[in-house]
Design goal:
Keywords: Cytoplasm, Initiation factor, Protein biosynthesis, RNA-binding. It is found in: Cytoplasm. Belongs to the eIF-3 subunit G family. The chain has about 280 residues and is an alpha+beta fold. Among the domains are: about 30 residues; about 80 residues, RRM (RNA recognition motif) domain (Alpha-Beta Plaits). About 20% of the residues lie in helices and about 20% in strands. The chain has 7 helices and 9 strands; from the N terminus they run H-E-E-E-H-H-H-H-E-H-E-E-H-E-E-E. The strands form 3 sheets. It has a 4-stranded antiparallel β-sheet, with helices on one face. A hairpin with a 6-residue loop joins strand 5 and strand 6. The protein starts with a helix and ends with a strand.
């Protein structure tokens, strides 16, 4: 009965058998001078034995090494490599190429000068300092916030150097050497004509500064709106130099001070294009 039970027992397949110890690697010398290395390992995915075949070529290279290094290569091996020959075993040891180490030398004077010249060329040139001709600030003169109330600083300095010129008094035609009398010196001349004859010296007592304006407002709209309070001599809407859009403020000049005061009183806080305007006298 025991013999029959052992005879009927199913034998396991060869693929299902997993040895506890893997076979030793095999090295086969080929006729072309290469070596075929056959090794085995266990695949962790399915726990089965895997055969690995590698074809390698040994290259002998002569090099000069220190005497102590050469002696150390002759030491007897121990452990799993006890009976192996001299030199590393390619089946168990990964040999990497030697890394040459060279000490850097101090650069010569010519190399330092060449490096300095290349660095000077690579560095950008220093930016020129920008100075406003009106307030001497670090911005362009066209973007000065005081350009409508102050004159250029260099023009004022040149004017101070010039001797004071006497203004001829108003004289009737025919009593002087010439019969022509300038309009601003004639009898009944308007204040706007006198202000225009001062060559840059404006009378800002009748000038209003209008701020908090919409980007869509135009000079014609401002002129029509402020004309209800008096005669508008000049209306200037300040625009950006690059984009052309208005910067949200303008200057309106009246003929008389009373008209400017009336406009400041009536239109300060007036709504234009969903914005509340702020109207005040221009500051010198």
């Amino acid at each position: 009965m025991v013999a029959n039970a052992n005879w009927n027992r199913k034998k396991p397949a060869w693929a299902d058998e997993v040895d506890d110890e893997l076979p030793a690697p095999e090295i086969i010398n080929n006729p072309d001078g290469t070596k075929t290395v056959i090794s085995y390992r266990i695949n962790p995915a399915n726990n089965k034995k895997v055969r690995i075949t590698q074809k390698v070529r040994e290259v002998k290279k002569k090099e000069r090494v220190d005497h102590s290094v050469a002696e150390r290569k002759k030491w007897a091996k121990y452990g799993a490599e006890k009976n192996s020959g001299p030199g590393p075993n390619v089946t168990t040891t990964s040999v990497e190429p030697d890394q040459a180490f060279k000490l850097g030398l101090k650069p010569s004077k010519a190399e330092e000068e060449a490096e300095a010249a290349a660095k000077a060329v690579a560095e950008p040139a220093p930016e020129a300092k920008i100075a406003c001709r009106i307030c001497s600030g670090a911005h362009f003169t066209s973007r000065c916030p005081y350009k409508d109330t102050l004159g250029p600083a260099d023009a004022a300095a040149d004017k101070a150097k010039e001797p004071a010129a006497t203004t001829p008094a108003a004289a009737p035609a025919g009593k002087s050497g010439s019969s022509y009398v300038p309009p601003h010196l004639r009898a009944g001349a308007r204040p706007s004509d006198r202000a225009a004859s001062n060559h840059g010296e404006r009378d800002d007592s009748t000038t209003l500064r209008v701020s908090n304006l919409s980007e869509d407002v135009t000079e014609d709209e401002l002129r029509r709106l402020f004309s209800y309070c008096g005669r508008v001599v000049r209306c200037h809407l300040v625009r950006d130099r690059d984009t052309g859009r208005n910067r949200g403020f303008a200057f309106v000049c009246y003929e008389t001070r009373s008209e400017a005061e009336k406009a400041c009183e009536k239109l300060n806080g007036y709504g234009l294009d969903n914005l509340i305007m702020r109207v005040e006298f221009s500051k010198k």
